[in-house]
Amino acid sequence: MENQLPKRKKIRLSDYDYSMPGAYFITVCTANRKALFWANVGADNIRPNDIKLSAIGEIIDYVIKNIPISYPHINVDKYCIMPDHIHLLLVINADIDGRMISSPTVSTVIGQFKRFVSKQVGFPLWQKSFIDEIIRNEQHYLATWQYIDSNPLKYALKKHDKGTENEQ
C-alpha cells in the first residue's frame, strides 16, 4: 500500500550549496505563531524603542549575538526579534583571497540555534524548518536590512491600527 501522506514541499534550492560565502535572509517562527519574545506585546502604544524582550526573547538575543563565536566565519549583520518570529541577516564569509572556508550550512547553524534555545527555555518553541532567501546583490542586501530594521515599527503600527478599528 502506498503512503497517502502529502509530501512536504521542498523550500531550499536543490542545487545550491548553503555553506557558500554570501548573505542569507532567515526567518524563524514560533510553533503556532505564539507571541513569546516581547514582554510588552499586549501594550497599547508600543513604539520600537519601548520594546522589552521577554525572558525567552533575552535568551534568543544572547544566542544570536554568540553565533559568530560558535561559527567564526559567520556574521549576523542584522537581526530583529519580533513577538512570534525572528529575522536574521547571516553572512558566510570567504577567506582573505575570496575562497570558500569550510563552514556549516545555513540549515546546520539555524538547526543548532533552534535546539540550543529550546533546551535553554525547557520546551520546543519553534515551527518546523525556517524560511530563507539568498541575497543576490547589494540592492537586495540593503532592502533586506531596511525590512528587518522597520519590522518592529510596522508591527506596532499594524497592532495600533487594529486597536483603533475595534474602538470605532
Strand % is 15-25%
Number of helices: 4
Question: What would you call the structural class?
Answer: alpha+beta
Contiguous uncertain segments of 5+ residues: none
Main β sheet profile: 4 strands, antiparallel
Portion of residues within helices: 25-40%
Strand order of the largest sheet: 2-3-1-4
C-alpha end-to-end distance: 57 Å
Q: How many whole angstroms does the radius of gyration measure? A: 18 Å
Shape: globular
Please tell me the overall pLDDT.
85
Number of strands: 4
Q: Could you state the order of secondary-structure elements as H and E?
A: EHHEEHEH
Description:
By secondary structure, the protein is an alpha+beta fold. It has helices spanning 55-65, 67-70, 106-121, 138-167, and strands spanning 22-29, 74-81, 85-92, 131-134. The protein has a four-stranded antiparallel beta sheet with strand order 2-3-1-4, with helices on both faces. Helix 1 packs antiparallel against helix 3. It is globular. The mean pLDDT is 85.
List keywords for this structure.
168 residues; alpha+beta; four-stranded antiparallel sheet
Write the layout of secondary structure elements.
Layout (H helix, E strand, L loop, with lengths): L21 E8 L25 H11 L1 H4 L3 E8 L3 E8 L13 H16 L9 E4 L3 H30 L1
Antiparallel strand pairs: 1-3, 1-4, 2-3
Helix pairs in contact: 1-3
